[in-house]
């Protein structure tokens, strides 16, 4: 059992098997209705909604991305996205989620597209929104796949150093399960439990996985800090690490204040995530939202703070010494693996080298749980919008049998996951920063926020205004992403635009341009085109 | 003006205040450690997270928008039979 990577692999395999068993179990509770499969019959209570919503919004980005970015640029990353998300995510649940839930319950919507079709009196809005939502989900799914593949390989390094099919690829991960196999297995398991368990299974799996990654996250933090600090108590270890942190990592010296402010726009993305929208509709009653809205900022704190501190403390000179000692104590021969240069790998590296092998496997399962609890909702949602908004909508409910629905829906989800997996294998996506890719994905969804907010709170929003707002958001996203991708130096995360006003030049994050484009297009075009009919205004604004 | 509307306005004021406080330029380059562990800028941001939770607790007490929504009928797709 002391073979490098073996205990970790065994724990991961057992964990994946348990998830499949949970899906089969929840399948026995399925009521056999479409509403139950897609929305768990609107039966989800406050605790399950909190856990499933939180698990859905926290992906590999929150663990791998946050620790990696803190490793790269210091503790300022917490303020960039964690404290801002605590304010903005709950604001979105409060202003968008609750209202959408009421309208969806009253008028029977199961997806965002169904809501927009009705609100905008436009059947064809679905043909614009569907590719936009699916297209923006691709980098989100990629974030999960990149994180999963990297983590499994990191944590099983040394397992089969002369093995075939990528096991033997040289480097610090030599012998680890190759990313194509690790990421592929994780995608396969998530697909199976989503297909078997539907929304009820996904919500249960999310709740289980959210609890797991929160508890194990705290355990990981304590274990690694105690190894890193080498002092007798946790407090003494934290004080030693705090004292060793370089000033540029403990402050925001290199961080632009305007960039910090502009990051506030990124969490608005949850207002337009299709999978979060679908989770909102599972709520049993309006009051179910209270607990998720209140507890969400604290849950973010519990997950992000340990990751950010570990990432920043990994830059201290204490890491190399602690790893060397732990490696010797485990009885492994030869030098320990080198500290990774790819920030994505810093958290799994510390888990692998600084925690006991078996426990390391549990911690790996915790990290994978965070990743899978987002992938499952994304897969389920992609299937739901394809089934409801494309297949059923255009072929007619009476012309599509149950078996055909299942066939088409699963085929579509597998095709999208296969596309993401193909991009992961065939491009350099695996080397992309999880944090940077996540921010680009969230920027696209955040740019759509003006449209959904206007749909709910502005009677004057017209069909043409919404079309132009969505088009402006996605066209500016594609244009700016292309510019970022082809820039000769720096990664996609380093791209920004310059705005010169007088003799001063200001740097703008891409999300600001996208958001402003969509906002201006939505408002300007709505004001010069015919408003919605009185019947539609009555239908959506009658309670005020 | 109803109590819920007043509460709503109060919450929006709270949100704006939190957004302003989050932009803590006063701790930007301050490397002081709180309790010898946390950089003071990070400790401030943790305070923002806790304050956000308190604000949303108050929102649930005084500005719950669903209070104004009429009772809901069952959704229309609940009876549609389909195999998963």
Overview in brief:
The complex is a heterodimer of chains A (544) and B (84). Chain A has 544 residues and is an all-alpha fold.
Q: Can you walk through the features of this model?
A:
The complex is a heterodimer of chains A (544) and B (84). Chain A is an all-alpha fold. Chain A contains 22 helices and two strands. Chain A has a two-stranded antiparallel sheet. In chain B, strands 1-2 form a two-stranded antiparallel ribbon. In chain B, strand 1 (33-34) and strand 2 (38-39) form a beta hairpin. In chain B, helix 1 (3-22) runs antiparallel to helix 2 (40-62). Chain B is elongated. Mean pLDDT of chain B is 82; it is low at 75-84. Chains A and B meet through helix 2, helix 5, helix 8, helix 9 and helix 11 of A and helix 1, strand 2 and helix 2 of B.
Topology:
The complex is a heterodimer of chains A (544) and B (84).
Chain A: H1 6-29, H2 34-39, H3 46-57, H4 60-73, H5 77-107, H6 112-119, H7 125-155, H8 179-229, H9 234-244, H10 247-250, H11 257-262, H12 274-280, H13 290-313, H14 318-329, H15 346-354, H16 357-395, H17 402-426, H18 434-447, H19 449-457, H20 463-486, E1 497-501, E2 504-508, H21 510-528, H22 534-541
Antiparallel strand pairs in A: 1-2
Chain B: H1 3-22, E1 33-34, E2 38-39, H2 40-62
Antiparallel strand pairs in B: 1-2
Helix pairs in contact in B: 1-2
């Amino acid at each position: 059992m002391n073979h490098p990577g073996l205990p970790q692999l065994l724990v991961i395999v057992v964990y994946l098997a348990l998830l499949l068993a949970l899906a089969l179990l929840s399948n026995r509770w399925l009521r056999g209705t479409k509403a139950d499969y897609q929305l768990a019959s609107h039966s989800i209570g406050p605790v399950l909604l909190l856990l499933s919503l939180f698990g859905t919004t926290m992906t590999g980005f929150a663990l791998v991305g946050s620790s990696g970015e803190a490793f790269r640029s210091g503790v300022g990353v917490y303020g960039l996205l964690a404290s801002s998300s605590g304010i903005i995510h709950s604001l979105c649940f409060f202003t968008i989620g609750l209202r959408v839930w009421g309208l969806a319950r009253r008028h029977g919507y199961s997806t965002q597209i169904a809501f927009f079709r009705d609100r905008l009196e436009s059947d064809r809005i679905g043909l614009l929104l569907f590719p936009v939502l699916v297209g923006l989900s691709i980098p989100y799914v990629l974030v999960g796949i990149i994180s999963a593949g990297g983590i499994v390989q990191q944590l099983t390094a040394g397992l089969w150093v002369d093995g075939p099919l990528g096991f033997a690829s040289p480097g610090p991960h030599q012998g680890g399960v190759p990313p194509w196999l690790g990421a592929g297995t994780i995608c396969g398991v998530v697909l199976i439990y989503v297909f078997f368990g539907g929304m009820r299974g996904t919500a249960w799996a999310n709740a289980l996985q959210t609890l797991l990654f929160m508890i194990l996250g705290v355990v990981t933090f304590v274990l690694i800090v105690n190894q890193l600090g080498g002092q007798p108590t946790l407090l003494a270890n934290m004080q030693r690490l705090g004292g060793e942190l370089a000033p540029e990592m403990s402050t925001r010296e290199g961080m632009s204040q305007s960039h910090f402010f502009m990051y506030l726009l990124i969490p608005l993305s949850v207002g337009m995530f299709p999978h979060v929208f679908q989770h909102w509709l599972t709520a049993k009653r309006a009051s179910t939202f209270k607990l998720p809205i209140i507890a969400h900022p604290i849950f973010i704190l519990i997950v992000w703070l340990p990751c950010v501190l570990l990432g920043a403390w990994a830059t201290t000179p204490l890491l190399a010494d602690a790893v060397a000692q732990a490696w010797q104590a485990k009885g492994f021969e030869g030098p320990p693996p080198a500290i990774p240069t790819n920030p994505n790998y810093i958290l799994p590296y510390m888990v692998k080298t600084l925690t006991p092998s078996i426990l390391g496997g549990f911690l790996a399962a915790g990290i994978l749980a965070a990743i899978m609890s987002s992938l499952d909702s994304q897969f389920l949602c992609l299937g739901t919008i394809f089934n409801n908004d494309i297949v059923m909508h255009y072929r007619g409910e009476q012309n599509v049998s149950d078996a055909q629905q299942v066939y088409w829906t699963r085929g579509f989800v597998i095709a999208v996951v296969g596309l993401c997996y193909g991009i992961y294998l065939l491009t350099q996506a695996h080397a992309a920063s999880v944090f940077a890719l996540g921010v680009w994905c969230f920027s696209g969804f955040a740019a759509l926020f003006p449209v959904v907010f206007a749909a709910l709170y502005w009677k004057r929003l017209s069909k043409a205004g919404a079309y132009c707002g969505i088009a402006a958001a996605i066209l500016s996203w594609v244009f700016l992403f292309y510019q970022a991708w082809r820039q000769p130096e720096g990664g996609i995360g380093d791209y920004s635009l310059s705005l010169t006003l007088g003799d001063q030049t200001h740097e703008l994050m891409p999300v600001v341009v996208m958001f402003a484009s969509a906002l201006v297009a939505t408002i300007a075009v709505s004001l010069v085109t015919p408003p919605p009919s009185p019947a539609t205004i009555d239908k959506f604004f009658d309670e005020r | 003006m109803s109590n819920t509307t007043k509460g709503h306005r109060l919450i929006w004021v709270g949100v704006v205040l939190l957004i302003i406080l989050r932009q803590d330029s006063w701790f930007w380059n301050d490397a002081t450690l709180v309790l010898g562990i946390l950089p003071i800028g990070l400790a401030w941001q943790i305070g923002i997270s806790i304050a956000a939770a308190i604000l949303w607790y108050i929102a649930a007490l005084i500005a719950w928008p669903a209070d104004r929504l009429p009772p809901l009928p069952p959704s229309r797709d609940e009876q549609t039979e389909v195999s998963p």
